[in-house]
Amino acid sequence: MSTSLLDHVRTLLLQAAQTYRASPSGPSLQAVVDRLDEPLRVAVAGKVKAGKSTLLNALVGERLAPTDAGECTRIVTWYRDGLTYRVTLHPLQGAARQVPFTHDHGAMDVRLGATDPRDIERLEVEWPSASLRATTLIDTPGIASLSSDLSERTQAFLAPDDDQPTTADAVIYLMRHLHATDVRLLEAFHDDSAARAAPINTVAVLSRADEVGAGRIDALHTARRIAKRYRSDPQVQRLCQTVVPVAGLLAESAATLRQDEFGAFRTIAGAERGDVEALLLSADRFREAETDIGLSAPVREGLLRRFGLFGVRLGDMLIRRGVATTADELAGELLRQSGLRDLREVLTNQFSERHEVLRARSALAVLESCLRADERPEASALMSALERLRAGAHEFAEIRLLNALATGGVRFAEPAIRLDAERLLGAHGRAVTVRLGLPPDASPDQIRQATAEAIAVWRRRAESPLASPTVADAALIVARSCEGHLMALA
């Protein structure tokens, strides 16, 4: 289905690029055609100190993005897979150029020279990475900064003026807790236009989740309860698909755990438990107190900087209980505990499995913007074709309905019916077994039976005399999604 959709979108874009080849829109349309073959573009956004760069490093599995308040944190920076290591500076005026950089067991240090960060549109970092092959990650400056320039840069990137489409296909929004400012910022990214963000392509992350419980060993359990409460909040549901708690610093450090750090953890776990508990009462005590456990103050400072007090406490517990006996085992368990794997699963279900329809959606948004900006005679036929494609493609119908369910535009009589519809529409994953609520190893006969039952249920709901026109139309879309599964089996 999605491949066919992209083919239709590509054909329409090529027609438009040919029509506008001699106009200023020509290069933009050709760039969109090329973009169809690129990885999905996912922007990482949030307020200052929300942990955006730290989470990006954890997702890549390598420390690339700077996490301090340096010059590069003030610039929109793209991280994409490449054949070689290269950084390209794109100025607001003039030609792009490569710039020197260093990277030595720490965040990348890009040398901007005499160029003022305010004069830079973006930096592009090409880095050979398996994590970046399917997704290009875009780090944005902190929103709600004391510097209005930084906030404006990010808002201009995610929610351009003049009805221009955003460059990103999807958004990961980080928040430390749900604040009125976060709600306003997310609302700014959403409108009724297909050119902007929507609940289906926005995931919220409760970042720095280990700090929710003041670094206690059960901090992430507390954060998961808070995230679950947010997920059931109607205000949050209309702004993002889900909320996932992640301890970003722990995830980043676990992904890059060194053997010497494992040795330090093992030294802590091998010391007297009472001595260690006294040392781990606070970050200051762990950093500065006199101790006989065999770790110097600089080593303890390094562990604290890399893992945080929560990470040190957790690492000590995992090794002391025999859960982790090697560096690889410790790294894997810390990653699991950090919530990063849960986030990766959500990103796979929400973004990766929908990457073709999300790219098609973004491409049509750019095309629509060009057609409205240059209303030549040929634009009318192209606009009609665009509207037919949007209206006729079932993938777009699924996304529109998922967004309507999240925002309250469509309301079923019972919450359970809405949850059933979201699952069948692919909100939790596009695999047919996930949609039908079946085990992964379900047989074709089980899939056929479950699909036929779902079609019958949703057809009845569509035909019910008590159903409003909106609910009836929604039920037909769900039924058609189920019918698509039978067609695929056939």
SSE blueprint and pairings:
Elements: H1 2-19, H2 25-35, E1 40-46, H3 52-60, E2 77-80, E3 86-91, E4 97-98, E5 101-102, E6 109-110, E7 120-126, E8 135-139, H4 148-158, E9 170-175, H5 180-188, E10 202-207, H6 219-231, H7 234-237, E11 243-246, H8 248-255, H9 259-270, H10 273-279, H11 283-288, H12 297-320, H13 327-338, H14 340-350, H15 355-373, H16 377-392, H17 394-407, H18 415-424, H19 432-436, H20 444-463, H21 469-489
Parallel strand pairs: 1-8, 1-9, 2-7, 9-10, 10-11
Antiparallel strand pairs: 2-8, 3-4, 3-7, 5-6
Helix pairs in contact: 1-2, 1-15, 1-16, 2-15, 3-8, 8-12, 8-13, 9-12, 15-16, 17-21, 20-21
Could you characterize what this model shows?
- By secondary structure, this protein is α/β, with parallel strands linked by helices.
- It has three domains: 2-247 and 341-353, Rossmann fold (3-Layer(aba) Sandwich), CATH 3.40.50; 252-338, no CATH class; 410-489, no CATH class.
- It has 21 helices and eleven strands.
- The chain has a nine-stranded mixed sheet.
- A hairpin with a 5-residue loop joins strand 3 and strand 4 (97-98).
- Helix 1 runs antiparallel to helix 16 and helix 2 (25-35) runs antiparallel to helix 15.
- The radius of gyration is 25 Å and the shape is globular.
